[in-house]
Amino acid sequence: MYQRPQHLLSRASKQWHIWFIEEPIWGDEWKVELRSVNEQLTIVVPHLKHGTPAQDVLVYQRRMVDQLLESERITDFVAWYYTPMALEFSDHLSPQLTIYDCMDELSAFLGAPPQLIEQEKRLMQQAEIVFTGGYSLYEAKQKRHPKVFAFPSSIDYNHFCQARRPLPDPTDQRNLLNPRIGFCGVIDERFDCTLFSELAQRRPDWQFVLLGPVVKVDPACLPKGSNIHYLGMKTYQELPAYFSNWDVAILPFALNESTRFISPTKTPEYLSAGLPVVSTRIRDVVRTYGSAGYVQIADTAQAFEQAIDAALLGRHPSDWVAIDTFLTENSWDKTWSDMARIMQGHLQLVTDQ
Q1: What would be the CATH architecture of the domain defined by 157-328?
Q2: Gene3D superfamilies in the record, alphabetically (predicted)?
């Protein structure tokens, strides 16, 4: 998924050398794959053998990090974390600055390792700066660290506004009738299957298109119907063409512990594409988009149906000038620039000392 980490660290690579260490891939061999994205951004992917004991995995990853620093002659560096679990194989390092960019409350997710909460406590103690992916996360973390900064989901406006003009309809949705109601994102325990299933049953004349991988839930348990179409994972570059040929976008998230702190990136992406949006009562969506009238908030399948009807009739949203002003003022470029300024300020203090 091309999400917050990719948006930010690709921009960071314009002024820093970045080594982006991914989660391991399990297979039949031990190796470290290096993929160059550009001259200053390298993706590091450890490949591990199935059945390797957990402690051996940590030893291998620790050795991989040490060898990377040695081979690339890395001495002065910033450690940037997206998961506290990575601290298990990197807590021996001595970075000039440690950043924790907390984009989700990972401990609330299905299948979260039991040691994650303790590892996050350790990371919060080690990190000089904590960024959060939304205001709700900021409120949850601000009392636990002296330097927490909220940076909600931003937008690559120029990429998604391509969808406002007619684009060729992708082949796998080309034969679907209109209206088309779309969802794009990971389909996991955050997706409200009950609400979505009832909505699709209420409106058999609407076609529901879902893009994204199915993760941690049994695909057999997902809602089925002649008007429900799971089209799978799409690349970031492909998304505008799909959005261009939808009528309304939805965020049918369940209201549970795993969604309590989320700030869906898709909200501004849908709006940049010119799509009306209907969402469940996700706190950051309501606060940022619902209260301003940019997104309709619905609590039930019936309310979703009524909101979609209003959008199809052109009754919501109405103030696209205000929406576009908001979106263009909240770009990933600006977010990275603000983050970099905070980082440079800290590094300058270290240098002065």
Answers
A1: 3-Layer(aba) Sandwich (3.40)
A2: 3.40.50.11010, Glycogen Phosphorylase B
d(CA 300, CA 252): 10
pTM for this prediction? 0.91
Write out pLDDT tens, residues 177-212: 999 999 999 999 999 999 999 999 999 999 999 999
Residues of the chain with CATH 3.40.50.2000: 4-154+331-352, 157-328
Q: Quote the Cα angle for 197-198-203, to 5°.
A: 100
CA distance 238 to 236: 5
Total count of residues recorded for the chain: 353
137 to 13, 95, 151, 267, 307: CA distances (angstroms): 26, 25, 10, 17, 28
Nearest-angstrom CA–CA distance, 201 and 213: 23
